[in-house]
């Protein structure tokens, strides 16, 4: 028996309200919960029977015999209404409901498609481009028409040469679509960084949305799901996922699984890897901004990766200073990693570019990926008693940390080290953009 767990909150906004009860038979693609205000509809991702309904989750026991068909969105709905009915949310970030984003008109504005694959290790966006570039372009054109944009730029790192070549071929004849080739550094896929480094050359304030630049930024998988909703009348029932780590013994593996049913548990996915090496933790998402997860956690509309890291080294007896970055792990997440290494945290500092919201504790970077220097913060952590640094900084900030920490005899551990080592990637230390994998 396969159990599917569908959280009622999978996007910005409140939790959905269930429209099914325990014991109901449901079909794949059937709407089973609706938003109360801002949010997105939730659909069954399999044929099966509802076994549990709470204010947080709907659980479905999948039928042994799946039809591999789905309940289609009504044909008479407009393109924008089809997006709403499909329950599409942003696939690459916080999960803002696509209907609400695209309902905002940007006359003579700019539509940016985020294909930067910002986080290292993750590869599902690039994989989708390689297999479905033309459908992605059609999805882009649908969104462009809906929002009233005058042009489109696809932001992609220039290192993805195969995907770049396929996109160049797919946009032939689309004079309104161009490519923006990005540097290979983190966080080049952050939406404000995309707008800053594009032809607009505009740095938005930390509390600005792209609308302030008469622009909309949307993820490449999101526009693919838009094309599915409009052309195939298909609701959001699956997600592309990167699965990575030492999944075949000590062999370093990075694989993409397309169209994983939403609600599939992490443990069910990892059953495909019976020879997994011992791991330190499982990360849901990317190594910079992902969170610790477990085998009982479900895939959601915004899930991007499952990474099994190497075991954590012991830093018992070490006094660790944390240097947090607005584009990476929060101090709470860093303390979790420090605890896994048996380290004592003696100080916490934010990057100089971080603007922290006192109410939420969330931080935004003044100028994503462009570092003002971290010497002052490193010296403060040493004064607090740190003999080791645990940092979560972006490419440029890490470079500046490495400009001073060795001179102070302070060893540096990066929060992404354990995921990178598990996948054979070079760890974050001093890195030029072309080497930042």
From TrEMBL:
Residues 83-227 form the NADH-ubiquinone oxidoreductase 51kDa subunit FMN-binding domain. Keywords: 4Fe-4S, Electron transport, Iron, Iron-sulfur, Metal-binding, Repeat, Transport. GO terms for cellular component: membrane. It comes from the Bacteria. GO terms for molecular function: 4 iron, 4 sulfur cluster binding; electron transfer activity; metal ion binding. Residues 5-59 form the RnfC Barrel sandwich hybrid domain. This is Respiratory-chain NADH dehydrogenase 51 Kd subunit. The lineage of its organism: Bacteria, Bacillati, Bacillota, Bacilli, Lactobacillales. InterPro entries: Ion_transpt_RnfC/RsxC (IPR010208), Nuo51_FMN-bd (IPR011538), Nuo51_FMN-bd_sf (IPR037225), PR_assoc_PrdC (IPR031001), RnfC_N (IPR026902).
């Amino acid at each position: 028996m396969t159990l599917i767990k569908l959280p009622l909150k999978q996007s910005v906004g409140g939790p959905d309200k269930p429209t099914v009860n325990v014991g109901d038979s449901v079909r794949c693609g059937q709407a089973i919960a609706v938003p109360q205000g801002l949010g997105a509809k939730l659909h069954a991702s399999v044929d099966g029977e509802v076994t549990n309904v709470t204010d947080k989750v709907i659980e479905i026991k999948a039928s042994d015999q799946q039809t591999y068909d789905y309940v289609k969105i009504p044909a008479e709905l407009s393109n924008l209404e089809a997006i709403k009915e499909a329950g599409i949310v942003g696939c690459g970030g916080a999960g803002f409901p696509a209907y609400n984003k695209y309902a905002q008109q940007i006359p003579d504005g700019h539509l940016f498609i985020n294909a930067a694959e910002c986080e290292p290790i993750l590869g599902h966006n690039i994989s989708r481009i390689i297999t479905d570039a033309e459908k992605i372009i059609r999805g882009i054109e649908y969104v462009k028409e809906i929002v009233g944009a005058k042009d489109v730029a696809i932001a992609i790192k220039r290192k993805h040469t195969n995907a770049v070549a396929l996109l160049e071929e797919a946009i032939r004849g689309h004079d309104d679509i161009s490519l923006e080739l990005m540097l290979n550094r983190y966080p080049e896929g952050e939406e404000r960084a995309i707008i800053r480094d594009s032809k607009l050359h505009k740095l938005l304030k930390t509390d600005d949305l792209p609308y302030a630049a008469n622009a909309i930024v949307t993820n490449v998988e999101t526009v693919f799901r838009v094309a599915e909703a409009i052309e195939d009348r298909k609701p959001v029932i699956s997600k592309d996922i990167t699965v990575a780590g030492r999944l075949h013994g000590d062999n370093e593996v990075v694989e993409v699984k397309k169209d994983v049913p939403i609600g599939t548990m992490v443990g069910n996915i990892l059953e495909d890897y019976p020879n997994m090496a011992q791991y330190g933790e499982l990360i849901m998402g990317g190594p910079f901004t992902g969170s610790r997860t477990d085998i009982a956690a479900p895939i959601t509309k915004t899930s991007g990766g499952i990474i099994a890291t190497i075991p954590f080294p012991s830093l018992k007896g070490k006094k660790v200073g944390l240097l947090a970055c607005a584009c990476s792990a929060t101090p709470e997440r860093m303390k979790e990693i420090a605890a896994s290494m048996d380290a004592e945290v003696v100080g916490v500092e934010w990057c100089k570019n971080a603007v922290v919201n006192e109410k939420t504790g969330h931080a935004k970077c003044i100028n994503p990926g462009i570092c003002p220097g971290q010497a002052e913060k490193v010296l403060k952590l040493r004064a607090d008693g740190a003999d080791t640094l645990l940092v979560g900084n972006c490419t440029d900030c890490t470079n500046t940390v490495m400009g001073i920490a060795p001179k102070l005899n302070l060893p540096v551990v990066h929060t992404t080290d354990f995921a990178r080592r598990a996948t054979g990637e070079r760890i974050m230390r001093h890195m030029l953009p072309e080497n930042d994998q």
